[in-house]
Amino acid sequence: MIESWAARSVRDPVALGALSRVFLKVSLCGFGGGLALAHRIVVDERRWLTEQEFADIVSLCQFLPGPNIVGIAVCTGTRLRGAAGALAAAAGFLVIPWVLGLAAGVLLLGHAQHPLLQKILGGLSAAAAGLLMATGIRLLLPHRTRPAALIFAGLAFGLVTFVKLPLLIVLFGLVPISIVVTALQTARAR
Amino acid sequence: MSGPAVLLTLIAHLALLSSISFGGFPTVLPDVRILVVDTYGWMTDQEFANFFATSQALPGPNMILMMSFIGWKVWGFPGAVAAACATFGPPCVIYFGAYRLWHCFRDGRWQPVVRGGLVPVITGLVIASGLVIARAADADWRAAAVTVAAAVLMLQTRVNPLWLLFAGGALGGLGLL
Questions:
Q1: ipTM of this predicted structure
Q2: Does some domain include residue B50?
Q3: What is the pTM of this model?
Q4: What pLDDT, in 10s, does the model give residues B112-139?
Q5: Strand, coil or helix: what is A13?
Q6: Phi first, then psi: what are they for B82, rounded to 5°?
Q7: Around Cβ A80, how many Cβ atoms within 10 Å?
Q8: Strand, coil or helix: what is B22?
Q9: In A, which residues are within 8 Å of B115 by CB distance?
Q10: Which residues of A touch B121 (CB under 8 A)?
Q11: Containing structural domain, residue B67
Q12: Into how many domains does chain B fold?
């Protein structure tokens, strides 16, 4: 850690504009694979971060609330240029894509009553719902051999779907119990 | 409810939800739907599903865009800006603060334990969110079949999800749904 900080200070500091441009590219070209693209540019091409630093950032962001890819932008910016870097990276990721996306979306949704567009949006929504469910199932697959994991996934699903409990209550009710159970199982396995 | 109270209600809810959106913003969709469709009637189920689908078909920060469409529907352009800020603001502050503190707990033995406890709950929440969108979007059995087919293809093949999205849109546009 100390070594890499020293190495960095010898090198020229990364320009804030370059940070913004890189994360603008990640945002616009990432299309579902933003993480892989960010890794290729930040680690392989620009060599702003080492493999280990990037992996650390990814695992930190997976722990925290919010869109992970925005977190990767913020943390990369912080690592390279502190608070100004975080702002530059987040602004690059968000501002232009947001303006373009909002304009396109509002234009499109403004005509949502048009019969053809209504049908297209209907099919799009149906497919999007399936993709979201598949994302959840894919996340669960690595844990499928642990009965406790399946039970807690099922409980979370049921409490939201059938009992219609708010997210806050489900999270703070289930996650501590789930962590304690995992800790007990880990301790027993040792 | 009318006037700025509408906007404040939306911002307060989104800011709270984004602060607890572990696993990404999809996990908060059921709560957002209850707020904007059931509780306040700001939009229909169909509009809610349309907003989600459109945001998924556009490049860029999808879920922030979806919340911006909701903000736009509720309070025009200022609503869209406010909704976007409430969605990405709290997580950005948390990311920044946590990264600064990261060296304190980066090697903790508790990390795999917390992950092992947190991830299953999140997966249940994400699947529940998918079902919420499916319920809003699937008007009949044919649309439900598209939902199931998209999920199966996503799980069983390496096809780019964007193609599945556009295939759904094409089926709808051709009047097959």
A1: 0.89
A2: yes
A3: 0.90
A4: 888 889 999 999 999 999 999 999 888 8
A5: coil
A6: -65, -40
A7: 23
A8: strand
A9: 62-63
A10: 152-153, 155-156, 170-171, 174-175, 178
A11: 4-104
A12: 1
